[in-house]
Specification:
It is found in: Membrane. This protein is of the alpha/beta class. The protein contains 16 helices and eleven strands. The chain folds into three domains: 209 residues, no CATH class; 91 residues, Elongation Factor Tu (Ef-tu), domain 3, CATH 2.40.30.10; 123 residues, Nucleotide-binding domain of ferredoxin-NADP reductase (FNR) module (Rossmann fold, 3-Layer(aba) Sandwich), CATH 3.40.50. The protein has a five-stranded parallel beta sheet, sandwiched between helices. Strands 1-2-5 form a three-stranded antiparallel beta sheet. The chain is elongated, with a radius of gyration of 25 Å.
Length: 450
């Protein structure tokens, strides 16, 4: 069936429509791989199979090694995953998977050492020294220590105290840790004597690293050469935010949509060292793109000072918070603070008519409202509903409760809800809309606080 302008899933480019991987399919593929790895551990175990320390050591080691390839694939920024699964869900899976891998590595190391001590009937200290002499174990131990360090700095309390740029550079050591551990995986007892499996394991790692190289390195460089993005000019929006207008070539080839984001790297001074995820704050145009940045840290403050003519590497577009996800005819957009940026672009372009389209903007004060004139103009032009919710969070009238939301949008349960806000506000909205009867599949949210 051909999509019409007001049909859910319309306004999507042909390039973006193909190759998306749904969350359900991605999870099934991951689980199928995990089952295959566990079966490999059982096949490798002495028969009759017994659930003992050697089996635990083999299975946890293989699962940890397999999990590493899954994590690389999830964060490779492959378009099919980014568009189909969504950046925020991929990030959550990555965080959960990383913690699981960390636990599996510790189980593997402890179980293997204790099992060797029991089999050889030697003290645990002597067994530890023996194990370290096995193929690739010294490098794998260093890799494990790196994983521990990366896991520590990635914990929520520590990460909040670190600059984003410092955390990002530390996180890149993950690739070093993976490389150090690979030799032990290939030559160690888990895969020894199984050349076909060793080749398949090597190909799995090659595929994972290939995805990372293709979409995190080569694709952005290719886009930079093709589109030649530069800062055209900067507009001060107030409330500590600026809009950056970027001009380039062939921007229509990006197939970007309202609601999506890019990872931007400004190629000047220390800014080139890290990329920042910013949503488009206006619908994409064949000749220019607009992003809006609020100064919340050292990196964003430096971005405010970039000069016209600065070259920009924009990797993307990413994100699944587009019209494609819409299932109902009505839409409620909720933006909190600078989270209004993707909502503003969607407010202008979603193919929803009149009062069936509502934008709710939560800000701490009237002075904190961004794009007020633009939003009011769009609301008048489209006959849409625009609600500003300002003031103290302790004011009951500002509470993101099911009762308040239903008072503003009585048919809320039949609508799709798109939101972009702080983690606290997002949690409150999620609870409220679910209590109001909005099905989970009609709630669309991407959080870039990671």
């Amino acid at each position: 069936m051909t999509a019409t302008a007001d049909h859910p899933g319309a306004a999507r480019s042909e390039a973006g429509a193909s190759g998306s991987v749904s969350p359900a399919l991605a999870l099934w593929l991951i689980m199928a791989g995990a089952v295959a790895v566990m079966a490999l551990a059982v096949i490798k175990a002495p028969h009759p199979v017994q659930f003992n320390l050697p089996l635990v050591a083999h299975m946890s080691g293989l699962l940890a090694g397999y999990g590493v390839t899954v994590m690389m694939g999830l964060m490779s920024r492959a378009p099919g995953l980014e568009r189909g699964v969504g950046a925020d869900r991929l990030s959550r899976w990555h965080g959960l998977g990383g913690r699981a891998i960390f636990v599996l590595m510790l189980i593997h190391g402890v179980a293997a050492t204790v099992a060797w001590s029991m089999v050889q009937r030697i003290p645990l200290r002597t067994a530890t020294l023996d194990v370290l002499r096995m193929p690739g174990l010294v490098a794998a131990t260093v890799g494990t220590l790196l994983f521990i360090g990366i896991g520590y700095v990635s914990s929520r309390n520590v990460r909040r105290r670190m600059k984003y740029e410092s955390w990002h550079l530390m996180h890149l050591l993950t690739y070093v840790a993976i490389a150090l551990s690979f030799a032990h995986e290939l030559a160690g007892p888990d895969l020894a004597g199984m050349p076909v499996v060793q080749v398949a394991w090597s190909l799995l790692y090659t595929l994972s690293f290939g995805l990372v190289l293709r979409y995190r390195v080569l694709a952005p460089l290719t886009q930079m050469w093709r589109h030649r993005l530069r800062v055209d000019h900067i507009v001060h929006e107030g409330a500590g935010a600026v809009s950056i207008i970027l001009r380039g070539r062939h921007l229509d080839e990006l197939n970007a949509e309202s609601g999506q984001f890019f990872r931007w790297r400004f190629l000047v001074g220390p800014l080139w060292l890290s990329s920042h995820p910013f949503s488009l704050s206006a619908p994409p145009h064949p000749q220019f793109l607009r992003i809006t940045v609020k100064a919340v840290g050292d990196g964003t403050r430096l971005i405010h000072a970039v000069k016209p003519g600065t070259r920009v590497l924009g990797a993307g577009p990413y994100g699944a918070m587009t019209n494609e996800r819409r299932e109902g005819r009505g839409v409620l957009l909720i933006g909190g603070g600078v989270g209004i940026t993707p909502m503003r672009a969607l407010f202008e372009t979603l193919p929803v008519h009149g009062r069936e389209l509502t934008l709710l903007y939560r800000a701490s004060s009237v002075e904190e409202i961004l794009f007020r004139d633009e939003l009011e103009h769009i609301a008048r032009q489209r006959g849409a509903q625009l609600i500003f919710l300002t003031g103290s969070a302790s004011d009951p009238r500002n509470a993101m409760s099911a009762q308040n939301l239903l008072a503003m949008v009585p048919d809320l349960a039949t609508r799709d809800v798109y939101m972009c806000a702080s983690p606290r506000l997002s949690s409150a909205v999620t609870l409220a809309v679910r209590q109001a009867g909005v099905p989970r599949r009609q709630l669309h949210h991407e959080d870039f606080s990671f």
